[in-house]
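pinging the channel bc i need a second pair of eyes. not urgent but kinda urgent?? the chain im working w is below, pasted from the shared doc
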Amino acid sequence: MDDITTLRTVATVVSFLCFMGILVWVFDRNKDRRFDEAANLPFLDE
């Protein structure tokens, strides 16, 4: 196998894994609750 082909294959797999990680992070339902709590923090201190 050619070195450049191996490099391209590894880059493609790493890119795909990063893409899947971003999708999991975006669609995480627990994140919404944490962001809502963080958004209300300035209003809790009087």
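so The CA atoms of residues 17 and 35 lie 25 Å apart. and The chain is about 85% helix and 0% strand. — does that match what u expected or am i reading it wrong
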